[in-house]
Design brief:
Helices cover 31% and strands 22% of the residues. Strands 3-4-5 form a three-stranded antiparallel β-sheet, covered by helices on one side. Strands 1-2 form a two-stranded antiparallel sheet. It contains five helices and nine strands. The chain has three domains: 61 residues, no CATH class; 66 residues, Double Stranded RNA Binding Domain; 68 residues, no CATH class.
Length: 216
């Protein structure tokens, strides 16, 4: 039985070189893109292979299947972008010198986080999202001396002077000379890095358009 198997293996391999390619009587394999079809008049016969035909010894990954190749990094980028859209953040995938992809996420508060894969990114953003939801449920209270408070990116921002005007009534009077004076003055204030800031929110209350305060 052992002898039969040895003879069979010898038969299978006698026309193949060390790379597994079929070879002729002269011991040489056919050129790349050609296959051995036997011997004719004492000469080896090699014929061109058809497109996408399997060649012994050739890696399957080298065979053109007609489908566009998509790298692992591109697949990760698609998944990362979906998560970024879901959690309302900016994200990118960068490849290190060692060839390892790293995910960078840019949060609305200016913070940047790095992740090793999309699962790590999903878990962390999910925790952040839950905390943000909890904060959103709690009403903001104006700080001392301020009239209003609004939550922006999970943080409370107080704005507007508290109390009444000198003659009584609301301090905020859009469409008045006082309103024009406030809008002209506040328009010169430098914009903040993470709007809307207190000045932006106050100008909205005064209905400022440039240096003018519009009526209700």
């Amino acid at each position: 039985m052992k002898l039969i198997l040895e003879n069979w293996n010898e038969f299978l391999n006698e026309k193949k070189n060390k790379d597994g390619k079929e070879q002729g009587a002269d011991g040489k394999a056919c050129w790349d893109g050609y296959k051995y079809t036997g011997t004719e008049d004492g000469k080896d016969k090699c014929v061109p292979m058809e497109e996408n035909e399997y060649e012994p010894g050739r890696a399957v990954a080298d065979i053109d299947t007609g489908e566009e190749y998509v790298s692992p990094e591109d697949l990760m980028r698609d998944e990362v972008q979906d998560l970024a859209d879901k959690f309302d953040v900016e994200a990118s995938v960068e490849v290190t010198v060692e060839g390892t992809p790293v995910i960078f996420v840019y949060h609305q508060n200016g913070e940047t986080s790095a992740y090793v894969d999309s699962e790590d990114m999903y878990q962390d953003l999910g925790r952040r999202w839950d905390k943000l939801d909890e904060k959103k449920k709690k009403p903001c209270k104006p700080s001392k001396g301020k009239r209003f408070a609004k939550r922006v990116d999970g943080k409370c921002r107080s704005f507007g002077q508290s109390g009444q005007a000198k003659g009584g009534g609301d301090r905020i009077r859009p469409g008045t000379k006082k309103g024009d004076a406030y809008c002209a003055r506040s328009a010169k204030i430098k914009k903040c890095k993470n709007p809307p800031c207190a000045n932006d929110l106050s100008r909205k209350k005064w209905k400022c358009r440039g240096s003018k305060s519009m009526k209700e």
